[in-house]
Each structure stands twice: as C-alpha cells, then as structure tokens.
Amino acid sequence: MLIGSWNRVFKNIVFIIFVVLFAVFGVLFCRSEVHAAPPVVVIDLPFDNSEVEFGDSILFSATVVDPDGDDIDSYLWNSPQGTLSTESTFTTSKLTVGTRLITLAVTDVNGEKGYANVTITVQPSAPTIRITKPVNGSSYPYNAPLITTTGDYVVFEATATDAQDDPEDIKITWRSSIDQEFGSGDSVSPVTLSAGSHLIEVTATDSDGNVSTDSISITVKNQPPAASISLPADNASFSFGDLVTFMGSGTDPEEGKLTGDALVWTSSQGDLIGKGEVVASNSLKSGINIITLTVTDSGGGKATASVTITIGNAPPRAEITSPDDGSAFAFRETITFKGTGVDNEDGTLPVSSLVWTSSSSSVPLGKGNSLSVSNLPSGTHTITLTVTDSEGATATDQVVVVVGNTAPVPVITSPANNSSHSFGRAVLFSGSASDA
How does DSSP classify residue 224? Predict the structure, then answer.
C-alpha cells in the first residue's frame, strides 16, 4: 500500500517535471521562432533601374524594419567595385561607368540579416569646356593673321575637363560661323579670320564620343582698300576732244587686287568716265577737271585717289535757224536771219558775239540773234553766222539765199492817157524807165 502510494507520487512528480520542462522548452522554442525573423530592408533611393551620369553625386538611403523590434547592428552597401558605405544613408560620386548592382545587407543585434538591391546604370558624362581667350565681344581690325593693339597675335584659348579622361585625351576643335573650322587644341594662334561678325564655337569631345561646346562673339573690322592713279599725271593738260587714258589700281587687305566695277572713275564736272583699271574718254568738258578714282571692297570700305587735269577751251556752236538753206527772195524783200550761239563754258553767247556776213560784201550785215536786211543785191549769197566765246574760239554756220532781179519800170509821160488828137497833126511821144 505504501509502495503503491509512493509509485503514484513518483509518477505525479515525473509528470509535473515533464510538464514544467515542456513548458520551459515550449517558451524557449517560441522565443527562438520570434527572433528568427530577419530585418525587412527597402532601398528608397536611388530608384531601381535609374540612370545617372558618371561623376554625379548619388544619394543612397533605405528603410529598415525589424519584425522583432530588435536594434540594427550594421549596414553594408556593396557594389562590384567593393564596399561603398557602412552608413544607413550616404552619397557617393565614385561609381564607375556601366550597369551596377548595388546591394544593402542589414544585420540586427541578434545576427539576423536582411537584404535589398537596386540596379543603376552609370552613363559616361560629357566633358566641360570654357573659352578663356579672347573675351566675348572683342573687336579687332582685319589683319592676316589677327593681331592685338599691342601687336601680338590674337590667341584663342579654352579649358576642358572630363570626369573620365585626362585633359590631353579630349579633342578640341575651333569653328567660325563665317570661316568654318580654323584650328584644334586648347590654344590656337596665329589665326586669320574674314572681316565680319563671327560666332566662335569651341567643341570638346571625350573618348566616349560625348560632346560639349562653348561660344563667344567677336568682330573683325573691315579694313579699307587703297587706291592709286598712275595715268594721267597730275596737272596734265589736253586739248578739247583728245582721247585721255586713265589707269589706276585698287588693293584690299582682305581681298587683294580689286578689279572691274570696284574701281569707278569720275570727273568733278559731273561726268562718269568709266569703271575698271583702265578707261579712256574724249568727251571731258573743257576747263579744270578733278579726276577721282573710287575703290570699294566687298565690305563697303572705300578709298579714293585724285589727279587734276586741264582740258583746253571747247569751241562754241553756231546754228542758223532761219531762213532755210536755199531760200529765194525778191529783190529788196526784207529777209530776217535768226541764229544762236552756245558755248560749253559760257553758255548762251550774248548778241554781240553773233556776227552775220554775206559773201557779196566784206562789210558785216550786223550782229545779234535776229537780223533783218533788205539791201542784198540780186544774186546768190552765202550768209555766214560767226559766233565767238569768251576765250576767242569761234564757230560758224551758213545758208545760201537767192535774191532775184526785178524788171525795169517804164513810164509814158506823153501823150496823156486817153487823150484825143486831130488827124494829121503831130503827136509827141515821150517816156522814161527806171530799174531797181
């Protein structure tokens, strides 16, 4: 009986111990299951499959939640290049060009690890370039090559940098909006540019083919041409109507020798003589002529050269306007002669400079623009109008007129008209005649 009681007690004690152990191990087992959950990791930045340029500063950040509420012990950001950071948030600009898988490993205080990753593509970055010389808006007179006011060559200079390439590996070219490409390298001199307003652009190209540019504006001022007259000599004299040859030249710093319509000859008396290097004229007005050669380049720049020549006095011009040549008139009929005298220098000549003469007499008929006469003898007369200018030069014009012979006029004085006489008586007849 006693032994049976002890057996039941023993069994109860063993059962209680088993329950306690089961409870203890159950609790331990449950706690072990809770702490087995790793941290949950989400990378906030950068976004998955994003693209950046090489050298860009990239922000990395993540959100981490531990299901057990345990503290986070460490962060480890890795890339194919190696460890990037052990901070929860960081920035870097050191990623190399290419597609990069970035992994974040987070470990809590119990050693449980959580992971997350993003893929980003690092594109090659373009170089940077800046023109340092000359200054934007600079202006230079045309010279070949361009020079500064101090006589030094104008230098075109730029500074280029690239995140991947060394400066010497960057290709640099220079281009003008007028003259196209004019040099390469970070410094170009001497340089010859056409006259005008230029947009100067420099281009930097790196080893990946990425390109960047910078530009400035400069002005190359047109230099005027030069004009020279070789013929005729200054102060030369010519007779009126002479063929005078003019010879000259025009040269330009930008264009060289100028020809054709770029050379224009004029006279101070208002005449356009001609165009070109050699021209000739026999129609210059008498008197002093200042001959000017004007040379014009394609940019509108002008230069002139002049000589003074004298053209001898031009004779005046005489013209009989009435009567017509070959006109016939009766004896003692009044004939009116009309004419004009004109001179290049004097203009319309005064009446005293117009003298009328007849071939039938050495005595002038008279002077003036209009002259009436009625005393020309019968016959054929050559009428001459002579005009004289202030320099004594003369000119003439002529017409031929015919003055007819008139019949004599008879007059019977006796007997009287219609008189009566006796038969057989003597009748006296007397008369006379007159002739103009």
Answer: P
Q: Identify the three-state secondary structure at position 197.
A: strand
Distance CA 110, CA 108 (A): 5
Q: Cα–Cα distance between 171 and 206 in angstroms, integer?
A: 6
Could you report the per-residue pLDDT of 18-70, keeping only the tens digit for each? 433 443 344 344 444 444 799 999 999 999 999 998 888 999 999 999 999 99
Q: Is 224 exposed, middle or buried (0-12, 13-18, 19+ CB in 10 A)?
A: middle
Q: How many Cβ atoms are within 10 Å of 134's Cβ, its own excluded?
A: 18
Rg (the chain; Cα; Å): 62
Cα distances (angstroms) measured from residue 269 to each of 55, 281, 295, 310: 77, 14, 19, 12
Angle at 422 between CA 418 and CA 428, to 5 degrees: 65
The whole-angstrom separation of Cα 343 and Cα 20 is 153
Distances (CA, A) of 4 to 14, 203, 236: 15, 107, 168
Q: Which among 232, 249, 319 has a CA at the least distance from the CA of 284? A: 232
pTM for the full model? 0.51
Asked if 191 and 181 touch (Cβ cutoff 8 Å), the reply is no
The answer to whether residues 224 and 200 touch, using CB atoms and an 8 Å cutoff, is no
**CA atoms of 266 and 98, how far apart (whole Å):** 75
pLDDT digits (tens, 9 = 90+) for 170-217: 999 999 999 999 999 999 999 999 989 999 999 999 998 999 999 999
